[in-house]
Amino acid sequence: MLGLILLCAGGVLYPYLIYPLMLAALGRRKPLAVNEPYVPQVAILISAYNEEGHIGAKVQNFLELDYPAEKLELWVGLDGSTDGTGAILQAAILQGSGNARIRVVERAERAGKTAMLNELASRTQAEILLFTDVNPYYRPEAVRELVQPFADPQVGLVSGQTQVRGAGNVAVEGAYYRFEHWLKLRESRGGWLAGALGPNYAIRASLYEPLDPAMINDLAHPGLVAAKGYRSVFREQSVIEEAAGDEAGREFFRQTRMTAQGAYVLSRLGARLLRSRSWGMLWVMGSHKALRWAVGGWIALGTIAMAAAALSEAGWWWPLGAEAAGLGVVGWGWRRGAKWAKIPGFFLVVHTAYLAGLWQALRGERYVTWKPRAG
User: Fold this and answer.
1) What distance in Å separates the CA atoms of residue 115 and residue 244, rounded to the nearest whole number?
2) What span, in angstroms and rounded, lies between the C-alpha atoms of 20 and 235?
3) N or C: which end of the chain has fewer CB within 10 A?
4) Which residues pair with 231 in a beta bridge?
5) What's the pTM value of the predicted model, to 2 decimals?
6) What digits encode the pLDDT tens for the residues 257-315?
7) pLDDT < 50 stretches in the chain
8) Would you put residue 277 in left (φ > 0), alpha (ψ -120 to 50) or beta?
9) Do 48 and 78 meet the contact criterion of CB atoms below 8 Å apart?
10) What is the 3-state secondary structure (H, E, C) of the chain?
11) What tens digit of pLDDT does each residue of 69-96 get?
């Protein structure tokens, strides 16, 4: 029984301690020296559904970007929107001096974010496709910084970072993003990323291929880029600002959806990465994503193993009791809104959601459309 308990402990520790230590041991790859700014033709792609409350500010944010106007265009796909998003866009196009750079594509029926992005990507002739959402806002230099690594012809994808602002779970999400930031910086040394930042990443248009509408694009694209022999890079100088997340209940369902989508992507990409011998990418995606999703299962199995061991060896009641007491204290603090309970409470909510998402994926449930995160 001790062996099983130690295995479970290893399963919990691997994605949060062992894997980061392994990444820290990786050598740094020397980046390509670029003396001149790299300024390719860029298309920003957005799939929007009922975003009348934010789309006007997003257009203004686009017009204020520090990037040559003649080399930057905005494509907004209205995915079956039923509110005033389209009217606001048309008014912005007529009023603004940058109207020729803003294109709107409308679908009468909702087909999903990925399907909409497939259509937008097929319509532009830009060299670089930049993906974002309506709610986050770019800092003025973000696009210029994001495309600079493409000066290296071996770079196929570049992901930026986000900074959380406003009310909500700022401390919790800030801690999460700092940890993700650290991991991505070190994964990027090997030319891999387990996932791109959905509202702030770019890919070479020549590498884009239409995705299954049930696949989540920001997880699929780094794998596809690796399978084609190109590198993915994390560019921390490219920053977007995003509002803190919603309440715990909505965050639970968001993480459940993302895990179900991610598991589907891994099931589709695994064979392709094996055929292309992308061993590093398989290791990174397995460690950063799949094994992290399984942590809740290891915790549950370890608890059962300790309970079984306690029936024959009284000494196991101490760690079992400590675990139960810890969960009780965190739950008590979470319900009272205690600041110290937010991070451990978030950990428990997210890992329960991961298990729910894996269960949905195993049952064959797919997400093609979903309610966007509140801004």
Assistant:
1) 27
2) 19
3) N
4) 155
5) 0.91
6) 999 999 999 999 999 999 999 999 999 999 999 999 999 999 999 999 999 988 888 78
7) 375
8) left
9) yes
10) CHHHHHHHHHHHHHHHHHHHHHHHCCCCCCCCCCCCCCCCCEEEEEEECCCCCCHHHHHHHHHCCCCCHHHEEEEEEEECCCCCHHHHHHHHHHHCCCHHHEEEEEECCCCCHHHHHHHHHHHCCCCEEEECCCCCEECCCHHHHHHHHHHCCCEEEEEEEEEEECCCCHHHHHHHHHHHHHHHHHHHHCCCCCCCCCCCEEEEHHHCCCCCCCCCHHHHHHHHHHHCCCEEEEEEEEEEEEECCCCHHHHHHHHHHHHHHHHHHHHHHHHHHHHCCCHHHHHHHHHHHHHHHCHHHHHHHHHHHHHHHHCCCHHHHHHHHHHHHHHHHHHHHHHHCCHHHHHHHHHHHHHHHHHHHHHHHHCCCCCCCCCCCCC
11) 999 999 999 999 999 999 999 888 877 6
Residues comprising the chain, all counted: 375
Q: Are 111 and 213 in contact (CB under 8 A)?
A: yes
In whole angstroms, give the CA distance from residue 87 to residue 75: 15
Alpha-carbon radius of gyration of the chain: 22
Buried b vs exposed e over 106-127: b needs ≥16 C-beta within 10 Å?
A: ebeebbbbbbbbbbbbeebebe
Which residue type sits at 93?
A: I
Distance of CA 95 to the CA centre of its chain: 34
**Contact of 111 with 84, CB cutoff 8 Å:** no
For the chain, domain boundaries = 42-248
pLDDT value at residue 242 = 84
Distance of CA 110 to the CA centre of its chain: 22
Domain 42-248 fold is Spore Coat Polysaccharide Biosynthesis Protein SpsA; Chain A (3.90.550)
